[in-house]
Amino acid sequence: MSNTASERLTSTSTSSQSPARQDTPAPAQTALSAPLTQQQLARDPSDILFYIALALLPVDGTLLGIPLPYWTPLSPWFFLAYALANWRYLRLTLRAYLPFFLFPVLLVVTSIYGWQTVAVHANAIALSFVSLLLGLACLASIDIAFTRKHLSARAAITVVVCTYWFAFAVGVAQFIALKLQSDATLHYFAAMMYRRYIRVRPQFLFAEPSYIGMHIFGVLLPLFWLTRDRRLAALIPVFAAGAIAMGSGTRIIVDSAVALFLWLLSAVNFRNRKATWGFVAGSSAIAAGGLLAVILNPRLNDLATRGVLAGDPSMSARIFHMLAPMWSWKHDLSHFLFGWGAGNISEAVRDGYAGARQWFDTHGGVANSEINGLANPPTNTFTMSAYSSFITEFGIVMFALLAVMMLVHVTKHHAWNRTTVCWLVLTAYLYIQFESYAFYALWLLVFAVGSGCLSVRRKVDDIAINTTQ
Prior knowledge:
The chain has 21 helices and no strands. By secondary structure, it is mainly α. About 45% of the residues are buried.
């Protein structure tokens, strides 16, 4: 029984005929728990594309990437190439996740109303739907690699761990260069990046420092929840703590507090009194640490004392990017319901700018050149929030449908458990200040539910709880 309780959903899973499993039925096999006899490093040359995509996950802000809304990633394009190269498996993936692959068709139909009544911006439309396509390509690639072809989960995690350690090392090198004021080194890193922050704080290889939490808690932590790989357990806290210690930004502090609380909530056995008191102590420590961060961190201190509209120029701009289109929602019910149409965020920003700016100024907001420039926004205007962008483009009806689809997806695959709930909440939180439809966090969650990994995780965790009683 103890062996069954410690069973992990990784490629190191033992054969299902082990004597230790005779007392309790083994959980159903999932994409990440296939026996070693079925797993291979690669099945054919196309699998190189998948490993390249994994190796480039943290490289999302360089000049090499193709610009998408506020980032320049490389991995999504390799995921797309991998999915297309394995078109024979693609129909199986489409069948398994059919509602998600059909959903963009509904978005096109809904957008027709906005295109007819507002405007048509071809480049912005292409960026919006290409981002959706790349997100679905990520889902398809993961499913093909692990569910259809049974590639080695441990090998994949090895690639991910190595590439994120490399990204962390780049951040350390940038931090040292900042401390030593090494212009040559800073110029070298700045020349690599599409947007340049490294003369102020370490940027790693990300489009901007605020994306650190998206990668640590939108990619690495979910992978740990799926595999329980100890290498991820070491990487995640080191990367988060290191980014905070090097002053990479304020968002990573808040993200770390939220993610740590949700991890505690998912991990603690509340049937055990000592574990429950440990959760209370841990939560108290998180709250105390957050208060200390507000006191010691100048930017957090300014936000706490002067307010989010005036305490930090970056935060003010982020809020106004979201506020301007949302102001349009108040005064245009039909477009709020059905959207301004894909690619028409700039039109909603223009419509809502005057009202949003008046409210912003009245409530003590401090404007800057970025906010002033939104009075006449470019066609590729961004909102810095997936919710603001999606509802503006496609309407609240389509957003509600997407939320219902996700809940039905979890229910259909019997994946409701504490880990799933915490993962859903964490994912929803992360996208408040991140807008790209192509980012991996949502699609990784969709795969984890659909592949059965989370339902099996619940069985394993329940066994572990029973053996501790």
